[in-house]
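MODEL INPUT / OUTPUT PAIR
PAIR INDEX: 1
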Amino acid sequence: MLRFMPVGDSQTIGSAGEHTWRYRMWQHLRTTYSGPFAVVGPRETLYDKATDAPTSYEYADPDFPRAHLAGWGEGWLHMAPLIGGAVRAHRADVLLVALGLIDLGFYTNAGQTAANVRTFVAEARAANPRVGIVALPVIPNVRAQTEPDFAAEVAAFNELLAKALADLDEPRSPLLLASPPPGYETHLDTYDGTHPNASGEHKIAEAFAEAMYQGWELGGQYERSA
């Protein structure tokens, strides 16, 4: 059985009542991956805006497997110390990682964030030497559109992320850089300039799906469902 672990920040954990891109990916794998698979991780909740905490179990589809390693306001900085234990405990085979925006916005610059990427990869591999990782670059967001200095940090980090994954890639533990979701627009694909709406969820899931299909021949081409 292939075990997928979604890893991310607020764009990944989602809020009460949302589907999240994790749900769209699960739907995609159910229809395109021929073998058994599971979605794994140490956490299950969604973020609840009413309590300002990750306490909600109000998933839009009760059949969706809830497991993940994502947190509102958490980035590479926070996940690097956690990933080894999570991979080991849940026997994760593939990590689907969407991080970076929070780091650059609040904690670390591009170079420091890229260093945390390398630590993350090392810790994941220490737990599973054959783990595969697909990482999404920081995608369009309203802050990058309104703050030139922040936009420059995002661009610099995305270049450093690509370099880190290329440097660290190896056959037994392959690393993929997903392409930015094609046509992703903050005014069309988010509900607040940062967090994806249904359209954005599909586009993020498609970015991961296409990377795995093209890079590893895993799954199939992404077809949007309701």
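PAIR INDEX: 2
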Amino acid sequence: MSVISTVTVTVPATTANLGPGFDCIGAALSLYNRFQFSRLEPSATEKLKITVTGQEAPKVKTDDSNLAYLAFLKLYDRLNQSPPPVAIHIDMQVPLARGLGSSATAIIGGLVGANELAGKPLSQVEVMQLAIELEGHPDNVVPALLGGCRLAASSVKNQPQRRRERPDDDAEGFGWEICDIPWHSSIVPVVAIPDFELSTAEARKVLPNDYSKADAIFNAAHVGLLVRALETGNENWLRCALQDKIHQPYRQSLIKGYEAVQEAAVNAGACGMVISGAGPTLLALTDVTNVDVVVREMAAAWGEFGVKADVRAIDLDTQGAQISS
């Protein structure tokens, strides 16, 4: 078997939660980061060389703390093998710290790239499990790997369900059932990406440790309705289904102009608007007839608060991580 010397992995951005689907639902979007991994000669003085292109390239680490490289190392560690010296080139098109899964693209890119260079010893399911361990929750990494809209549910086989100590303590020790959620062609995602960042850690700090039974029931009902609304394109169901009581009420205050942008989107004909991932990107779901006005009005509403936003309609990515060598 010939040894692959260079592999390129193209990974889609993702939007997670979709309102009530906190930490369990995510969808891949047609915006991409590309990661090229090239073996260096074993005798090379440099064991790692990272270069980055793209508008936010200066923000990406180029030493051994780079997330794509950490994921690369994680796979070789799982194989109990020494990683080869490698040159990594990253083309960044997914903005950082905006709620579009930029960290998930790095994790998937690093794991898939390493798996290819190592000769594909791990299955897609095993790569996915490693990705969930690294990310801490499945909502971004699963659709980044597989494409489409996905629901991830954890289970512990042959032992009682253990108590989770923190919101993201659900990666190691769990098996996963991954369910694809059909996305009706009439539903168009519109992303509004602002010119400011919001870290996932900061967005998690504002969440309560406990929720009422009423709020838990509310979200369970709305997740069920969301799955059916996305599948059927029923706009009345979708308007109701996008409501949430677990994370959005607490995170709205972190996003300048949130209520005004939401009102503008709905008044322009969108079925609703949600926070994409941890934010600050906002995601509206609308039909094709209202796309242009939704885009225009969301941008204008944020502009009233001095926020410049890249607002655009975007396609669902159905392919997930793509490999070329």
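PAIR 2 NOTE: The chain has two domains: 6-182+317-324, 188-313.
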